[in-house]
Specification:
Length: about 260
Amino acid sequence: MFNWLWGERTPRELPESWRPILTSNATFRERLSPALQQEFDQRLIEFVEAKYWEGCGGLALTEEHKVTIGAHAIRLVLGFERETLRDVKTVLVYPTPYEAKSQEVLGGNIVVEGVSQRAGESWYHGPVILAWSDIQECLEEEDYWKRRHPHNVIVHEFAHQLDYRNGRSADGIPPIESHEQAEEWVKVTDAAYQRLSRACERNQYTLIDCYGATNRAEFFAVTTEVFFEAPQEMAEQWPELYRVMQRYYRQDFLGQ
Ligand SMILES: [Zn+2]
């Protein structure tokens, strides 16, 4: 299955200073099998080195910012080929949600979270923009269950990038291997989207945040957060959706 694993190339050692960062900010790494952990480390090193990183709004970027963001981005694509995120060349990090002054018409090729106070953005063939304070909130588990919805803003923004991979617009349908799998994807996600929309209209709680009912692109990004952050709960409460996402991401947290 993982035939694109690092293979014959000599694996590089993870820098020592990265280990405590991963221990506290990327706890999922510990649960990977040894082979996948090695694959993860190699991809993370490459990701951190290959991207152009910029701290914005006065943020002095540190190793912790890069390694944390890189780790969650790589986790998302660990079931895919190594080059999956090559179109993301730039990652911009703000200290907190930032003000955006421009009044542009946003098409499907730029996804903006929030209108004037932006927590993140994901551009087609362009940068991923994140607010570090939001990332920190997601990493604090207590906070995350207080809001009663699993969140991971890094996973969310990079999920939009996966969505872009079959065209300019984010439409909630990422590139899918086979016709049969794509049909299943559309059928299951349509039904789940309707279910979420109905629940949100009636103010009923669901595991999936109502932000996912905004449109199909947000549905994909928000349900991806749930898939990675609360797979057990998702498998119980949204079993069909869990199954198609597990098939798409080629990662199964429950079967391990
Ligand atoms: Zn979004």
